[in-house]
Amino acid sequence: METEEKKYPEVFQRETSRRGFLKGAAVAAGGAVALATVGVVKPVTAKAAESAKPAKIIRHLFVERQNCTGCRGCEFACSLFHEGVVRPEAARVHVNKYKGIVDIPVICWQCEDAPCIESCPVEPKAIYRDEKTNGMLINNDTCLGAKCHKCLEACPAQFLRAHPDTALPLTCDLCGGDPECVKACLAQSGNPQGPCIMGDKVGFGVNLAYRDVTPEEAAEDQITNFFYPNETGERREI
């Protein structure tokens, strides 16, 4: 019997106000992201290597915050890809547990105006954008690391943090256009609840609206939405 293929939730018409963004969910494209297959590494021909590339380059990430279950598969997959070991504190994506109640995924919004790049005092900039994938990259040789961290301060989404060993900014390079967090989240998602982290080749500018919602604001809104009223009909105090 064929197994049912997991798919992204359908895209619905949503509010575009800041409150609308707080309440909900990102505008994300449909289509399923293929799961990575683990196997023995073998030499491949140029033609085979070309066919192994993702069908489309993912240039933007999105989140459906209410779908996050706190599994942290995204952190595991990201750190394994970049560090070679499962090490959540070195992951480029991270999940915040707020008040011990809700889990909020914190991602790079790939801002079009890139405040992190603008804040870098080094010339040429130590943090820069990969024009092909839209991922944010770091020049390890010129970045001032712990002596600066102006990019961490400038990040409006409070996404950027320092590597626990090198103190270099943990920027999201989108895994070369095939983000591991997206695949891990899809693999862990349930039915009918879909994944919380998704990606697409276009961003529709939604990232610029989302980035002004801090993780704390998003968490407070999630708590308001999640908890049932008490006997008087009012929201329970947390």
Spatial strand sequence of the major β-sheet: 1-6
Order of helices and strands: HHEHEEHEEHHEHH
Outline, from the CA principal axes?
A: globular
What is the radius of gyration?
Answer: 19 Å
Low-pLDDT segments: 1-51
Could you give a short account of the major beta sheet?
Answer: 2 strands, antiparallel
* Class derived from helix and strand content: alpha+beta
Q: What's the structural domain tally?
A: 1
On the 0-100 scale, what is the average pLDDT?
79
Distance between the termini: 46 Å
**Helical segment count:** 8
Q: Strand-residue fraction?
A: 5-15%
Output the CATH class name.
Alpha Beta
CATH architecture: 2-Layer Sandwich
CATH fold name, please? Alpha-Beta Plaits
| Fraction of residues in H or I helices | 10-25%
How many E strands? 6
Would you kindly provide a written description of the structure presented here, covering whatever features stand out?
This protein has 238 residues and is an alpha+beta fold. The chain has a single domain (55-223), classed as Alpha-Beta Plaits (2-Layer Sandwich), CATH 3.30.70.20. Helices cover 25% and strands 10% of the residues. It is built from eight helices and six strands. The protein has helices at 18-23, 46-51, 73-83, 115-119, 150-154, 180-188, 206-210, 215-226; strands at 60-63, 94-98, 102-106, 127-129, 136-138, 197-200. A hairpin with a 3-residue loop joins strand 2 and strand 3 (102-106). Helix 3 (73-83) runs antiparallel to helix 6 (180-188). It starts with 17 loop residues before the first helix and ends in a 12-residue tail after the last helix. Residues 1-51 have low confidence and may be disordered.
